[in-house]
Amino acid sequence: MAQAIRLHQMSPLKASCQQCSLSNLCLPLAVEENDLERLEDIVQQGRIFNRGEHIFDQSTPFRSCFAVKSGSIKTSIITEGGDEQVTGFYMPGELVGLDSMSSEHYACTAKALERTSVCEFPVDKLEELTGKLPELQHHMYHLMSQEIQNSHQLAMLLSKNTAEERIAALLLSLSSRFRRRRMSPTNFSLPMARNDIANFLGLAVETVSRVFTRFQNQGIIRAKGREVELLDVEALQMVTRDFARQGCQQ
Amino acid sequence: MAQAIRLHQMSPLKASCQQCSLSNLCLPLAVEENDLERLEDIVQQGRIFNRGEHIFDQSTPFRSCFAVKSGSIKTSIITEGGDEQVTGFYMPGELVGLDSMSSEHYACTAKALERTSVCEFPVDKLEELTGKLPELQHHMYHLMSQEIQNSHQLAMLLSKNTAEERIAALLLSLSSRFRRRRMSPTNFSLPMARNDIANFLGLAVETVSRVFTRFQNQGIIRAKGREVELLDVEALQMVTRDFARQGCQQ
DNA sequence: ACAGCAGCCTGATATGGATCAACCCGGATG
DNA sequence: CATCCGGGTTGATCCATATCAGGCTGCTGT
Predict the structure, then answer these.
(1) Does strand C come within 7 Å of the CB of A199?
(2) Nearest CA-CA partner of B41 in B70, B8, B86
(3) For the whole model, what pTM was predicted?
(4) How far away is chain A from the Cα of B102, in angstroms, using its nearest Cα?
(5) pLDDT tens-digit series, residues A196-235
(6) Is the CB of B163 under 7 A from strand C?
(7) How far is residue A146 from each of residues A140, A168, A237, B98, measured CA to CA in Å?
(8) Which residue, among B90, B148, B203, would best test binding to A if mutated, counting the most A CBs under 10 Å from its CB?
(9) Alpha carbons B96 and A138: distance in angstroms, whole number
């Protein structure tokens, strides 16, 4: 019976959050073993996007949030003038679309940076479910709040920090997100182009390039194209903190 | 009976959201007439803070969100180094603390910019209630999402716009928030010091000062200390949009 | 009435990063 | 195999805004 229901309302791509290696990062994190099935019932799993394809853009009516399953996504706001501001990069286990929950249409454009698969959470069903599962509701608040904090952090970086500090901060953020996924935190390949980094951090591409080579010359990193190796994490942390130090040091 | 319960669990400051002039901006917006009472039951109303007093800071354990009832609040993140980054200004009807819902302690410090009264929403009770009132839950998601968007907007302003554009945008934002409260959108007094504006917009105080006088010389505004009059709103809008124009114009 | 001080304004100078211009590399394309 | 093209790097120059320095105004407390 339950079988039959699922079959007719869902695509053949029935989700199995239980077996997903990311369940400890993603929404399932919040729910009890026996409630997991209810989450699975509303999730549509396994849509694949090729590099450069849009998951949604600012003209798409807002219906769903998306969890990255593999690959990576860049979100950006495109102004009327065609100007772009990259607002975030999303890696496996992270949830995209939370900024749109107050709008008819998505508040940003989401683009796959590489071949990427996502799980789709229709918000009407999600809201219904969070109404029933307090843990899940709590987790949603948690995630959204986190998103606000991230964005404040970005604003801070943009308004107070030098080019070097911004890039160091980005590298460290990526590093810790790779670690979370049990991948090497010192040896990874950037999913995004220099251009996107520049845009995200409010810099010119040329500046990003220069800082990369400067860091390389100082022996802090090794970088060849998108391949990056963090040779001296401590030094990177110093860079990001130095600006904070000056304030109180004397 | 209901009376008795309320009496023992609440301070004498029983909220009356029904009579609040801000109920059409604040959380009550979301709930039905007959559910309003349940919201009132959890709200603690009428705490007053004098200019400069902290509503909370980053060492305060996170318990509650606060709605501004009168006055205004500035939130900022203070780094270990003592550096401050102003993350927002909150006026009557707006909710403070959403960025902290993922933390043990508040993610920022909230300070009254003038004599300010707030309504307090303990989050444990609030979450419980939103679990029962889908409309209220939806409204919470809405508010948090809005907060993310605002912050992205700020990031955009900080990374792409000139000093003039940033200040024009702030003035317009304040203007529309005064209008929402049915106050003059062209003739108001800034609740915050130049210093806070500068910090918020990632500028030096001197630059803010200069832009104010420049705008004044161009006949766009009239400003004397914190008293501001917007003489030419169109012109201000032009300033904020100009940068977007260039992108597509040719 | 006075000193002290915070907030604000103005001018002169310095600078980090944008901008402009050129070149290089590697992979796709015919 | 030659060509092309997007992405990345490097160098030279310029500019918006920070920074430094000084002065003004209007409180606040004595």
Answers:
(1) no
(2) B8
(3) 0.90
(4) 4
(5) 999 999 999 999 999 999 999 999 999 999 999 999 999 9
(6) no
(7) 10, 21, 22, 10
(8) B148
(9) 18
